[in-house]
Hints:
Blueprint: E1 9-12, H1 18-28, E2 32-37, E3 51-52, E4 55-56, H2 57-60, E5 67-70, H3 76-88, E6 91-94, H4 100-103, H5 108-114, E7 119-124, H6 139-145, H7 148-151, H8 166-189, E8 194-198, H9 199-206, H10 208-217, E9 235-238, E10 243-247, H11 252-258, H12 262-265, H13 273-278, H14 280-291, H15 296-303, E11 310-313, H16 317-320, H17 324-328, E12 332-336, E13 344-348, H18 372-380, H19 384-392
Helix pairs in contact: 1-8, 6-9, 8-9
Amino acid sequence: xxxxxxGIRVLDFTWALAGPFATMQLADLGAEVVxxxxxxxxxxxxxFGPYYQGISTFFFSPNRGKKGIAIDLKTEEGKELVRxxxxxxxxxxxxxxxxTMDRLGLGYEALRQVNPRLIYAALSGFGQTGPYSSxxxxxxxxxxMGGTMSLNGYREGPPLRVGVSIGDMVGGLYLALxxxxxxxxxxxxxxxxxxxxxxxxxxxxxxxxxxxxHSAFGENPTRQGSRHPLLAPFGPFETKDxxxxxxxxxxxxxxxxxxxxxxMAVDERFLTNRARLEHVDALEAELTRTxxxxxxxxxxxIIEPANVCxxxxxxxxADLFDDPHVAARGMLVDIPMPYGLPGTLKxxxxxxHLSKTPPVVGRPMPEHGGDTDDVLxxxxxxxxxxxxxxxxxxxxx
Length: 397
């Protein structure tokens, strides 16, 4: 099998990052994901820069392993093609503002008439219903409205966006998870269903601990840098040449001995976790003063074998390219350039390691309209002449 989702057909109308990140998961797992774009879209309009050999790296990354067709949805012939394709699909994905596909006559209620087994997966900023449903949302808005931004940053500083686009990507992961659940349900019921995932709500799901603390104790959790509200020490500490994370210290006295600070083991301010939390500023100052005496690699070699706490190097992105564990796990994959362009670009492999049906990562992004003939031929049985006529009319590319 080419992945556990081999045989599943996905008609993909998603764009930007959140939706394509969801369907990338399905493509990695073996589904045939067919990305639908407008015939007039220029290559540089498919995604933001920076551009490598004229290709958007923003588009290249989350659209690997997919096929590409181009259909003009403003034409009646284009809409009819979509209806016919939806009749052959298992899943349809879109991340337009709610109501967009309905206005085209291609929403869930319309398409379920032609395919009752269709799973219609809609991703939006705030969901298909509710007072915010018509609002636009990008990653930063999702992080802000969902609560995560209020928890990120330093206590006296402004709220900060998380450095990776978790507002988009976590929503995409929940969409992929929901699709898998709907596919499983269809095996039992024989019917498809509407899946509604909101970026804001996906962020709320990440705030579970903060939300339950507010519910139980009336707390209003806020920003505290890299500290943990319940444990100390916890977070990154500066070393001689970089940073190292120290967390979940199990044996405080032994930890202090290992780093050469026996005095801290008997300091009343640091004897218990509660005491360390109450004196966290002094604790972090002492640890930083000590940890800056050696390099990150030196401290890692000293602390990690002792098994007295969780410890990790703060890797830069460049560090990941040389990390032996990353290499051993095959977590960077060379993806070929499209359009016959020379060379490859490295992308993260799927972190899902299945022993019998592993993901298949390594296929390039789709060329714009590059698979129109193939998909319309295999899915709908259209001849080369019929596709040619549609292309001459501007319905497809």
